[in-house]
Write a structure and sequence with these properties.
The structure is a homotetramer. The first copy, chain A, is α+β, with helices and mostly antiparallel strands and about 180 residues long. Helix content of chain A is about 25%, strand content about 30%. In chain A, a hairpin with a 5-residue loop joins β2 and β3 (about 60). Chain A is globular, with a radius of gyration of 15 Å. Residues about 1-10 of chain A have low confidence and may be disordered. Chain A is built from six helices and eight strands; from the N terminus they run ααββββαββββααα. Chains in contact: A-B, A-C, A-D, B-C, B-D, C-D. At the A-D interface, β6 of A face β6 of D.
């Protein structure tokens, strides 16, 4: 659900030992963002999926994801992670409502919720975010593909995702009313 | 909740007698839309309020509102009514989720739900819609003002609205997390 | 999405000719309800599916569904249709929030939205409703089965539903976070 | 938003120094719960408000609130805090949907979001929870009162709440469609 070496990028005042210590003691707050493109009526036409290194060491299709920092608004964390993964010209359109469409509970034990993060217990606020600008995979993302809603819920695409990301993708598609 | 002579504008295949007949027998499906402007983080900065003739004959601050037509998608009805009231260059950004933030039940008897339409029982799907373009009041709207979230929930503004519109406005503000 | 001869049951002041006339001219307001049972933590454990005659003449697994009447609150319509289909001792627990988890647009042309009703354009407010009491299929429902979330999204069950009901069921499961 | 000495009650494996350390470095995950009673149609009839010591040292009307622990499901945290504050026979009915009706961002600086916690940056998932059983204030809660929706949004009640709790209460009332 996040960049392998995120702690180095964005939590520079937390040493590896410190984040280690906290991760063993408290749930960590995350955001997940599913970037999409829409037509003039607001219908989703494309869903953006990154390719990147995952917490479990695999290379996987994945959402935009990352921690909320101390003192940071959830909206700001969303923008920061979207721009980190999609580049500075993605033009994400954050919704005026602060409510996530779902919450995701990641556990080191994959059997608890179906969402898995071997490093930590994380609770993520999940948002669908329309992007209007040019996107290019940046930093740790190896690739970015745009899929139709049909393609995004195909078994082929699901099989390329780990840690429950394919389930999260389906929750997002259902939120938009486009599940098969 | 709608234009006084809407039946002439958009339901041309329904005569006045026919719409009269139906209004006495079935709830009529409406949409309500609260046009807003946001900053780069998605925070609402301004709420647009029309001034227009209301079903009860008063002139009142009001939302964008109107019927869903036979065969029409809810998304299309939203766009149509927003463009009818705000002009063709308003550039409304319809959300990818089809779910309204609330539903509003208007009755001829104002005591039932607090939402009042003397003409009919109407059930309205209510949406907050970000507009990105130039807006000007058109057709039956006499005026359009833009208010801050603070101003929009002031007693002065509430007193200029009838039929439960001030309550709907507060529900929209709460949905965006900005109620006082 | 509704009983074949619903007009006789609940719209007694509308003759067949009258409902015919209206159905050709306006979208009709419906509710869909997915009855569920939950454990002590609120996790869905079982989903109730009816077996009944459908608008297209087929016998199909289906949700609780029906029209909102003139003058009727949406909450009352929910209770009425749940009791009509599940019996008077079902004890439905209607949510304090009036907002449906999704809206469903049924059209005579099945290609428009993926939801199909050959008789009419209907817009349905869809709710998940916990039932606490004893349920038995009543009136036009031929049978009632309770399925686990896993079973409810199996291909076998999906193949027993028509008109988009399997899609609506998946939207409800996703709303509860239990889609595969 | 939480009991003054909560760390002693529920985070026994975190020393005061440890929780201090973490609170200066990461947002802490909370839940807020607004207990309500409903009528047979699901309309809210009463809202439960506690009286208790607040993080800022005041005695204030407040919601049920508290931390999510390491390894704990959000649903379990909800039940735990509701039973802690309302007693073991409150019979809270947790919703089948995992999505909060809003999120609340508490900051040591009250000007950032309007929600204030002098001890920490906390992000809270806020839920309305129907309770069916007997409630009595327990542990650190000094009192529990039940208010009508009208009373709950009165200026008198608002003036008895600190830290943004009156705003959260209004967001909950709006979510249920009963704001004035």
């Amino acid at each position: 659900m996040s960049m392998v070496n995120e702690t180095e990028n964005i939590g520079s005042w937390l040493t590896d030992d410190q984040i280690e210590f906290i991760r063993d003691r408290l749930p960590i707050l995350y955001i997940d963002a599913i970037p999409i493109r829409t037509d003039d009526l607001g219908n989703v036409t494309q869903i953006g999926l990154l390719l990147r290194g995952m917490p479990d060491g695999s290379i996987s299709r994945a959402m935009v994801s990352g921690r909320v920092l101390y003192g940071e608004r959830v909206r700001s964390a969303l923008i920061r992670h979207l721009e980190k993964d999609l580049g500075p010209t993605a033009l994400p359109q954050i919704s005026p409502s602060p409510t996530p469409f779902t919450i995701v509970e990641y556990f080191p034990d994959p059997s608890i919720s179906g969402f898995h993060d071997p490093r930590q217990h994380a609770v993520s606020l999940a948002f669908v975010v329309v992007v209007k600008g040019d996107c290019k995979p940046s930093q740790n993302a190896l690739d970015l593909i745009w899929l139709s809603p049909e393609e995004a819920q195909s078994e082929k695409v699901s099989s390329e995702m780990t840690g429950g990301q394919s389930k999260l993708l389906k929750l997002a598609l259902a939120h938009m009313g486009v599940i098969n």
